[in-house]
Amino acid sequence: NDKYIFDPNATLMEGPLPICEKIFEKTLSCDSMSKDQVAKSGELRQFTFHGHLMEKEAKLETLYQRWWSEYKAYLDQKLTETDGTLMIWDTREEGLGNLYTDFLRRQTGAVVSILNGGSFRVTWSQGPITLADVYNMSPFENTVTSYDMTGQELRRMIFEVQSGTKSFYPTSGLKQYVLSAPSRKLVDVRLFDGLKEHEIEDDKIYRIASNNFVIPYGGDDFKKVITWYKPRNLVDYGDFRDKVIEFL
User: Alpha-carbon distance 47 to 30, whole Å?
Assistant: First the structure.
């Protein structure tokens, strides 16, 4: 982008770094882990970031204590509840993918919807689903989008992303036939209305829904898709997380 011009001599790019007071000496991480992993990770030691100890900032701690109870009451608002665990798998269809892609179709009126695996960040356990659960699931400022594709383009897109390097892409409005071993491979894809399967007609126009990270930005395996597909009749419906909250 012409608006942003960086001086390479003044810009330092670093990989992800832990932001915690203590880290495990062998893994240099403070991520949550199993007991077996903890036993192999060494001692917890004080963490320094560019020579500075990671310590609580007194002013921020004061602000946190002042506002946290009020903010927590907001986050604890119940939206709905689930009678089972909702989670996402890298290699197959699962409850969260179904819920979110069904939501996208209902929100947009699309025939088919698709999301990237990175849209799902946590597991929802049985019981109440709160605002905090939605914020933890969707920490990004993505938006809901829809666009037109021919049947031929739709089929090509699904085959390309499902054979990509990322996780399984959940969809709604489709039935996907996938071999999971020795590696994930899409064999066939057909329209599915909940009762019956239908052929995807190559020349017919279908309304597709996703988030803007997928289309138009071309995130994850969609980076290949946007080399040959330019969104037609693209519509932005606003904040993805807000729409999920309304839906729930």
Answer: 10
Are 208 and 148 a contacting pair, CB within 8 Å? yes
Q: How far apart are CA 162 and CA 221, in angstroms?
A: 8
Q: Of 129, 123, 30, whose CA–CA distance to 79 is shortest?
A: 129
pLDDT in tens, 105-120: 999 999 999 999 889 8
Could you report how far apart the first and last alpha carbons of the chain are, in Å? Answer: 37
Tens of pLDDT, residues 114-172: 999 889 888 899 999 999 999 999 988 999 999 999 999 999 999 999 988 888 899 99
Q: What is the 3-state secondary structure (H, E, C) of 114-174?
A: ECCHHHCCCCECCEEEEHHHHHHHCCCCCEEEEEEEEHHHHHHHHHHHHCCCCCCCCEECE
Residue 200, both tokens: 């995807």
Closest CA to 94 of 169, 11, 194: 169
